[in-house]
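To the wet lab folks,

You asked to see what we're planning to order before we commit. Fair enough. Below is the target structure as tokens, and below that is the sequence we designed to fit it. If anything looks off to you, flag it before the synthesis order goes out.
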């Protein structure tokens, strides 16, 4: 399937980031996060494509961001012992049978969302991001959905929702803010996004929001937003 004219610029800019051709932008914020001893390798799939329906009603400032440009996300089950209820990219640990982060990200995406990896063009792998709390070293894999396939919750023990979000909605200043929390005596504050879904809204925060925030900055897609606006954060009991 050919890339629609409206999405060619977005695909090209994502590929440029994946190839390191936008190295003028600061990348230290994620690389400098603390590392925990014994951290395990992991990978996530940051998969962009073109929506079939329900495009954004927000007119993005950057011409590369069409109303139907989207990214794939999922909601983790609230019963999980780690990152319960959080919005995430498909992904997980790099298993011994995986050839590397790309293989792991595509395998996990298929297992979690049912997508067909054959329809995904891998644009490249971004720098490793340490996550001390969960003891992982995560490689984000940038992908383009050349031939989108249906997605769904495959295992309700792992995920409660799988959905595609218009990128323009994530860039909308009205949907952006921050969240704060305290854990084990440490304070944390980071970016957040609010996105609508059938039963209300999803709050995208934590690692996923940080990756989106930094990627949008590197792409030059970020629009001015109020960093003093704080969204309430309710963690699963």
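Sequence we intend to order:
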């Amino acid at each position: 399937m050919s890339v629609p004219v409206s999405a060619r610029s977005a695909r090209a800019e994502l590929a440029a980031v994946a190839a390191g051709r936008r190295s003028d932008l600061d990348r230290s914020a994620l690389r400098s996060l603390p590392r925990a001893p014994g951290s395990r390798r992991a990978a996530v799939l940051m998969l962009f494509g073109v929506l079939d329906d329900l495009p954004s009603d927000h007119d993005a400032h950057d011409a590369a961001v069409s109303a139907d440009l989207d990214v794939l996300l999922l909601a983790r089950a609230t019963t999980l012992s780690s990152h319960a209820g959080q919005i995430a990219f498909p992904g997980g640990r790099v298993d011994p049978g995986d050839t590397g982060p790309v293989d792991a990200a595509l395998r996990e995406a298929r297992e979690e969302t049912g997508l067909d990896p054959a329809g995904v063009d891998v644009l490249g792998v971004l720098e490793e991001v340490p996550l001390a709390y969960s003891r992982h070293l995560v490689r984000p894999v940038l992908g383009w959905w050349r031939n989108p396939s249906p997605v769904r919750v495959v295992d309700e023990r792992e995920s409660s929702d799988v959905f595609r979000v218009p990128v323009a909605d994530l860039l909308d200043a009205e949907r952006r803010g921050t969240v704060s929390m305290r854990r084990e005596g440490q304070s944390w504050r980071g970016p957040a996004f609010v996105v609508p879904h059938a039963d209300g809204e999803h709050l995208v925060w934590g690692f996923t929001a940080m990756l989106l925030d930094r990627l949008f900055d590197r792409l030059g897609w970020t629009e001015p937003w109020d960093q003093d606006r704080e969204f309430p954060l309710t963690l699963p009991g």
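Structural context that might help your review: The two ends are 45 Å apart (CA to CA). The chain has a mean pLDDT of 88.

Thanks,
Computational group
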